[in-house]
Amino acid sequence: MRGPGAALAGSLVDLVLPRTCAGCGVPGPALCRRCTAALASPREATPRRPPPGLPPTVAAGAYAGPVRPAVAAFKEHGRAELAGPLGAALALAVGVHAVLLPGRPVLLVPVPASRAALRARGRDCVRELAAVAVADLRAAGVDAGSARLLTRAGRVRDSAGLSVAQRRANLAGTFAVRPGTLPAGALLVVVDDVVTSGATLSEAAAALGGTRRDHDTPVLAAVVAATPRPGARGRSPGGPGQGPCGAPPGRLDRLSGPRDSD
Question: Residues annotated as region Disordered (predicted)?
Fold first, then answer.
């Protein structure tokens, strides 16, 4: 979460370099209202060939258009202020699960960064997004928290350029659960920035699900954005009179979408 020091640093940068929207490049906030709207339509993430064990996954928007450069600016170009709008988008996606399975505390489980990513970026981007999402969920009245339940169990090579099958093989056995007792009855929601093939989320869910005793409580997943399938739109399983992903109308009003970054 952003503190006074981060706000001061951002103000000093603004004096030297005018801020522009990371999505479209127009002068103004870190993510303008028009680009923000691209992350305000939660949908079921459906990879073209879902891997076995992929948990039910909700994405706040499609990983396309202005969302792609915004995520890249946050992760690869040091624009940490984008944790605000992107984290709020993640909260919206998690909020769908909270509405559909009410009455349980919600525990966000960030996908842990690899050592190489931590060295290159100097920060754990998904943990930053999870912290913002938890704050937004609590402000909306959701009993939410986050926990670093997962750890990397081995080395994984860069997945860029790999086929779907190669991605799955590359990630097999990647995650392990940290020692300790998992909270009984809580909704475990694995969170990440983007889902493409679903291999990372399925491996993370398998690690968590293998340690649970209350199997009636599923492991779920939520992401900021999902890579769209060619010729397909994100599927919303809600019928007439229902909101995003089957949520009753009005239940997500307080999580109406990512805010403009300060």
Answer: 225-262
